[in-house]
Amino acid sequence: MSEIKVEGLTKIFGKRPKQGLKLLDEGKTKDEILEETGLTVGVNKADFEVDQGEIFVIMGLSGSGKSTLVRLLNRLIEPTGGKVWLNDEDLAAMDDKQLREVRRKKMGMVFQKFGLFPFRTILDNVVYGLEVQGISEEDRMQKAQNALELVGLKGYENQYPDQLSGGMQQRVGLARALANDPPILLMDEAFSALDPLIRKDMQDELLDLQTKMQKTIIFITHDLDEALRIGDRITIMKDGAIVQVGTPEEILTNPANDYVERFVEDVDRSKVYTVKNIMVRPETVNLEKDGPRVALQRMRDADISSIYVTNKNRELEGICHAAEVSAAVKEDAKDLRPLLHTEVPTVDEETPVHDVFDMVSTSNVPIAVVDENNRLRGIVIRSKVLAALSGKEVNLDA
Amino acid sequence: MRETFDGLLDFLPRIPLGDTIEAFVDWLTNAEAFFNGLRGGIAGVTNGFLWLLELLPAVILILLLTGLAYWVVRNQEKKWGLPSLVFFGLLLIHSLEYWDDLMLTLALVLTATAISIVIGVPVGIWMARNNYVQMIITPVLDFMQTMPAFVYLIPAVAFFSIGIVPGVVASVIFAMPPTVRLTNLGIRQVPTEMIEAAEAFGSTPNQKLVKVQLPQAQVTIMAGINQTIMLALSMVVIAAMIGTDGLGREVYYAVGRNDIAMGFEAGISIVILAIMLDRMSQAFNRNAK
Fold it and tell me: With CB atoms 3.0 to 4.6 Å apart as the test, which of A7, B120, B174, B203 could cross-link to A83 if both were Cys?
């Protein structure tokens, strides 16, 4: 179910924004409108839906409108046009009081430079969102305490923000956003101010927390690696407009245009693709039905030197090698069983390609891809791994 | 040649700016009841401060102020400078027999500062919230600060007669701008992300002001108040021209009589009071950080 639905959401900065809205409707570009009227198009008719429990990443370079877009979602910036549906309510049409309720109960926000209050202790920072709602002292302290524990900052309650490192400060920011347990989290470049190692830790931690909490997270970043790591789906923005929405694989393998393609050029694909994307359909023989002659014939036809053996349920039994099968055929053997090698390398479909490099390079047979019931789903061969790394021949329908 | 150019502006009549203002001020004095009420109020506050200051014998007050000075610098490395300055300074003023004048001047400065804060901080907040208000009030503040302070004495006398009250009023006009300006500045300088955080978590505008903007702007606002105290003190001598008693009057008399000894003694008393107030309010501000 979609938790947030955005329709034609537009922000135009300048003195008479409605005029710009009309020009956009006429199909003028951002640059033309700037030249004609001096208005700046911040966000240009964004449409997307975010599902409940999803990490939805909005990515773009600076100036692409991503930070503006996220602020339109909680109206820190007032939209010029369009709608933001929150379940069945249009956020863009709410009055101040309704909006405040939504901000208090439904959305938490995490900021790039943390946005902590330096004159408040850590606990008092985390408690802020609950305090403005008028929740009782005891209740809110308890909730804030829980949120601090969740992000691993127990014991720091009475320190001040400037006594903490950047990573810890952002944990405080996260705890503050989580304190009221809102269903939606808006994260504006939340980890961009942290150094790379800490950033990776925080990404892992967010993913960990997400498995427990199942929030709907809108995550803004300019870092493609970060987007690919944590995003269930990614939106790419340019000049205020949405260029492409898709899963990380879709974005990588099927860039909508040159802009996206340039973006994804330098990505380490091996960490994004899984075995599922590069495995091929194997030649197999059925242990119960087929004999050495059939096996040998199939290997000759496919020009391969070994073949995987399954039973009638397609459960993996082992592998046979051409040389041994050929010898057995000469001796007129009828059964494959004595020729079967049961020690075979296996992986599951979701293993990142990165993690099978070693196996592929040391094994002299293809790697078998099996599911949890040991059924053979496919095989990984060396040439496919190399093709995937160069960005070609990847199977997304798998 | 010269005559031709000089003649060019002859068509301009003499614009009666001064007369107009005078007529306006005259007209304002019609609201006598209002100004009498105000006069009573200001006199009440000043006398209240004075009563409080004179409640205790001088020796106790000196010890109390020394204790207060120690308390405000207790967290700093040099703890003894300010308390000793306060202690010996006040003793000196007492021995010069200016104690009563000091109390009067202190009461005037405290009253002017209190009124400046009560009016100035809300005006500063209003300016910070509204760009149009800022646009209108900024030149008014410039006017208040650049108009020679003596000029304020004239309407002050017109409205409030002579004595300590017009002195307080002139001091307020002259001393209030820094508090207004720095309140405005302090609130506007609160980082955007902090404001966004306050809003994103559903603060009402008042919650945002009280829980985020004012605490964050506190140091800047206090710096403005410190300036206000100093300016109010600088008005003390000028206000003596309209019959405001206190240390200022002694300086003013000394100038009239060309009395170097008296001028120096009264002058040094004002200097001691100024340093005391300045250092104590600054140290107080540092503690607030």
Answer: A7
Whether residue B215 lies within 8 A of chain A, CB to CB, comes out as yes
Verify whether the Cβ–Cβ distance B201 to A104 is below 8 Å: yes
* A192 shares a domain with A102: yes
Contact of A111 with chain B, judged by CB distance below 8 Å, is answered with yes
d(CA B265, CA B250): 9
Q: Could you give the C-alpha distances from A134 to A172, A177, B16, in angstroms and in order?
A: 21, 17, 59
A174 touches chain B (CB under 8 A): no
CB atoms within 10 A of CB A196: 10
Q: Determine the structural domain holding residue A353 and report its residue range.
A: 275-389
Q: Which residues are registered as beta bridge partners of A5?
A: A49, A85
* pLDDT tens, position by position, A93-125: 888 889 999 899 889 999 988 889 999 999 999
CATH number at residue A373: 3.10.580.10
Average pLDDT, chain A: 85
Same domain, A340 and A235: no
What domain count does chain A have? 2
| Contact (CB<8Å) B211/A128 | yes
Taking only the tens place, the pLDDT of each residue in A221-251 is 988 888 888 889 999 888 888 888 988 888 8
Chain segment B206-256, per-residue pLDDT in tens: 999 999 999 999 999 999 999 999 999 988 888 888 888 888 888 888 888
Do A192 and A74 have their domain in common? yes
